[in-house]
Design brief:
The structure is a homodimer.
Chain A (H helix, E strand, L loop, with lengths): L2 H6 L5 H7 L6 H9 L3 E4 L9 E4 L5 E6 L8 H13 L4 E4 L6 H11 L4 E3 L1 H8 L8 H14 L3 E4 L21 H13 L4 H4 L1 H11 L2 E4 L14 H19 L4 E5 L8 H11 L5 E4 L11 H15 L3 E3 L12 H21 L7 H11 L3 H7 L3 H9 L17 H12 L2
Helix pairs in contact in A: 2-3, 4-5, 4-14, 6-7, 7-10, 12-13, 13-14, 15-16, 16-17
C-alpha cells in the first residue's frame, strides 16, 4: 500500500514515524495530513534513502538541482555537487541532466544519494528525440516509466498545461521559461494535439502508485519575469494542477504543486494563497521566487528573499537557485552558495512561523557570540568552513575580537560592564 | 537657512529641485515633506556632493560602511572600498574608522566622495580616550563639533539611550551591540550620570543647524539577536528618539531614525509601524535587519531578506551588511557584495511599492533575456562584471545559449514557436 492508502486505512507507516521523529508533528498528525493531501513523504519503494516529509507544520525543506547539460557533461562533477549539496543540508536533490549518458548519471545519483532524488523524465525523452515532429506521446510516457523504475523518489510532470491555454501566453514578455513546458507547447502546436502528460495522466498515476513515487506537478507556465507574474496562463495551469492533485489523492498517489518563478514581493502572499485554495492545501514547491529580474550573479540572493517570504506565507519546499542561474551551469561553490541561501530562507521562515525549536539555534549562536566563543559560532553557522575561512583571511583570527572593531568591541565592553559595574 | 527653514518658509531650495529631478516626487512635494520631517536631504553646506533625498515616496537608498579599525589601518584600502561602493550604486557612505589617523581618513573620504558621507563622531572620542574614567562629556560633544566642521553630511548620535533604561537590558542575550551605545552605557555606569549626548542635545542641534547636517538618531539599544528584538529597551529608546526628532525639526535640523539590527521576519512590519508612529513619520534607516543570527559569511544575504521586507513596509534607507559582518573588516569584494545585496533588496521593495518606473529595468532585462541578448543582460544587471565573468567562466560564452540548458533552451524554443507556429 502507498502512504496515502495506509493513511486512509488508519495505519501509521514506518516512514511516517521516521518523519515524525525529525519534525514538530506527531506521527498521527502526519498520517492524517498525508491522507488529506496536505503532506507528502518523498521516498520511492525502490530507493534506499531517508524519507523526507514536505507539508503542513513541517520544517521548510530545500532542494538542490544538479545535472549535466549538452555543453557540460562531466558526471563526476555532478556527483561532487550532489555530495556538497547534501553536506550543507539539502533535503532533496533533483538530477536535471540533459547531457551525456543521462540514465547512467541518474542511476549514480540514486545510488549515492541518501536524500530523496527527483527528476524531470521528459527531459530525457526530448534529448533522445529533439525533433518535435518525430517525438510521440508514448515517448513522453515511456520516459516517466523509465525514471520511476530506476528508483527516483519524485518526478516533475507538466500535466497541467493544456492546449487551450496557449493563447493566454500571448501578452507575455518571457513566454514559457520552463524547459519541459516550452517543448510541450511546441509539440502541441506542431501536432495540434493535447498535452500528452495531461491525456496520459491516469497512466502516470498508475506508474507512480506502483512504487509510491510522489508527483511534483510542474508549473510549465510559471512566470519567467516580474511582468508575467500571476497572469492568466499561470492561474489557468494552477487551477488545473489542483484538479490533478485531487485525482492523484483519489488514486493513492502523493502530489505536490510546483510554483514560480519570478514574482514581485507584493504578489508572493497572493500566490501562496491561490495555490493553497485551488490545490486543496497540497504542499507547494517554489523555485525562488526571484523578486527582481536584474540579479544575474546574485539570483541565489534574490531567490532567498522571495523564498523566505513564500515559506513564511505557507510554501513548504524551496528549490534553490545558484549565482549561475540565467548564466550557465553552476560549479560546486555555486551549489554550496545556493544551498546555504535557501537554508537561510527556510530557517528564517521556520523562526517566523514559530516552529517549535527553530529559534534555538539562533539563541545558541547569540550566546556564543556574546561570549566571543569563535568555535561555538563556527559550529552553529550554516557554513562553518566559510565563516572560519573569512575570519582566517583577515590574518587576525588569533585575537579574541575581530578586525571589524578591533579592541573597540561591543561584546568586550558588555563583558566589562557585567564584571565591573554589576557585581 | 536650513532645508527645513526654507521649507517652512515656502521656499523650494536648489537641493530640493536636484532631488526631485531624480525621484518620482515633485519639488513641491519634497519641500512639504522636509518641513513635516518625512523626508531629509543629506548634504552638508560644507561638502560639495550631490544631495540625496531619503524619505516619503522616494527611491529606497543604500548606505555602505567603510573605515579602518585598530587591527586594519590602511587608508588606501578604505578609499578603494569607497570607490567600489559608489561605482556599484551606494547612495551614501559612512566612514566608521577607528584605527590610524581617523581625521585624515575622514577628510580624504569627504574630499573624494561625490555621495553624502556620514560618520559616528563619538567613535573618535572613545578611540582617543578609551579610559572610561577619564573621558568627559565635553569630549563627546567636541567630537560631534569636529566632524561637522570637517564637512560630514550626516552623523550618528546615540542621543536616545538614557540611564534609566539600562535595567531594561538585563534580560538580553546580546546586551548592547552598538559600539557607541555600549561605551555610553559603560560611561553612564562608571560616572553615575545621564548620557551626554542626551543632556547635550541642544548643543548638538545648534552645531548641526549651522551647516545643515542631518542627524541620524542612533539606535544604541538595537537588538543584536532575534531573541532581543522589539524588547523594552529597544522600544524605550525608540520613543525617546521620536521626541528628539521632533525637537530637531523645531530647531530647523533634519533627522532620521536608525533601526535594527536582528529581527525575525514576522516582527519586521511591527518594527516599521512602531517607528513611523513614535517618530512622526521620520525617515527610517535600518541595518539589515538580519532574519537569522546564524548566517556569518552570508549576513549580506540574510540582511537583504530583512531589508527588502523592511523597505517594502516603509523603511527608507538600508545600511548594507557585508559577508564579513560578525567576522572581520570587509575587503573590496565584500563591499561590492554588500552593496549589490542591498541594491537588490531596495529595488525589489521599490517594485513592490509600485514606485513609478521601478519595474522598467526588470522588463528591459526580461526582453533582453527573451532575445538571448547577452550584452543587454549584462548592461541591466546590478553587477555587470560579475554576470559577464561568471558566464565567461563556463568557457562557452561564445555560444548563443548558456551551459545550464545548452541547446535545450526555453528562450530558443519560444523563438521557434513564434517563428514557425504563429505566422
Amino acid at each position: 500500500m502507498t502512504q496515502i492508502e495506509q493513511s486512509l486505512n488508519g495505519q501509521i507507516s514506518g516512514e511516517m514515524r521516521a518523519v515524525a521523529a525529525l519534525e514538530p508533528r506527531t506521527s498521527e498528525e502526519i498520517r492524517a495530513d498525508i491522507g488529506n493531501g496536505h503532506t507528502v513523504i518523498l521516498k520511492s519503494l525502490l530507493h534506499d534513502c531517508a524519507p523526507v516529509g514536505v507539508g503542513k507544520g513541517l520544517k521548510i525543506k530545500v532542494n538542490a538541482n544538479i545535472g549535466t547539460s549538452g555543453y557540460n557533461e562531466d558526471p563526476e562533477m555532478e556527483l561532487k555537487k550532489l555530495r556538497a549539496a547534501i553536506y550543507y543540508g539539502a533535503d532533496a536533490v533533483m538530477d536535471l541532466s540533459t547531457g551525456g549518458d543521462i540514465r547512467a548519471m541518474r542511476k549514480a545519483v540514486i545510488e549515492e544519494s541518501r536524500v530523496p532524488v527527483g527528476t524531470v523524465p521528459i527531459y530525457e525523452a526530448i534529448v533522445r528525440q529533439p525533433d518535435v515532429a518525430k517525438i510521440t506521446e508514448d515517448d513522453f510516457l515511456s520516459s516517466v516509466a523509465a525514471h520511476i523504475e530506476d528508483g527516483v523518489d519524485f518526478i516533475t510532470v507538466h500535466c497541467g498545461i493544456r492546449r487551450e491555454y496557449i493563447p493566454l501566453l500571448n501578452g507575455r514578455i518571457m513566454g514559457v521559461v520552463s524547459r519541459g513546458g516550452s517543448f510541450l507547447v511546441k509539440w502541441m502546436m506542431r501536432h495540434g494535439k493535447e498535452n500528452p502528460l495531461y491525456t496520459g495522466y491516469d497512466e502516470i498515476l498508475a506508474m507512480a502508485r506502483k512504487h509510491d513515487v510522489t508527483l511534483s506537478l510542474g508549473d510549465g507556465f510559471r512566470p519567467g519575469c516580474l511582468a508575467d507574474a500571476t497572469d492568466a496562463a499561470q492561474i489557468a495551469e494552477l487551477k488545473t494542477l489542483g484538479g490533478l492533485a485531487e485525482r492523484a489523492r483519489a488514486a493513492g498517489v502523493q502530489a505536490m504543486i510546483e510554483g514560480p518563478g519570478h514574482v514581485p514581493l507584493d504578489m508572493i502572499k497572493e500566490n501562496i494563497e491561490l495555490q493553497k485554495r485551488y490545490c486543496g492545501g497540497a504542499p507547494f514547491y517554489v523555485l525562488g521566487p526571484l523578486v527582481t529580474d536584474c540579479s544575474p550573479g546574485y539570483d541565489h540572493l534574490s531567490g532567498a528573499i522571495g523564498g523566505a517570504l513564500a515559506a513564511w506565507y505557507g510554501a513548504d519546499f524551496l528549490c534553490y537557485l545558484t549565482p549561475m542561474e540565467h548564466l550557465g551551469l553552476p560549479d560546486v561553490t555555486h551549489v554550496v552558495d545556493g544551498v546555504i541561501a535557501s537554508k537561510i530562507a527556510a530557517h528564517a521562515a521556520d523562526v517566523a512561523r514559530g516552529l517549535p525549536g527553530a529559534r534555538g539555534r539562533d539563541d545558541a549562536m547569540s550566546r556564543a557570540r556574546s561570549n566571543l566563543d569563535w568555535e561555538g559560532m563556527y559550529g552553529l553557522a550554516f557554513n562553518p568552513e566559510r565563516a572560519r575561512g573569512l575570519r582566517r583571511g583577515t590574518g587576525r583570527d588569533d585575537a579574541e575580537v575581530c578586525t571589524m572593531c578591533g579592541d573597540f568591541c561591543s561584546a568586550k565592553i558588555n563583558r566589562e560592564c557585567r564584571e565591573r559595574y554589576r557585581p
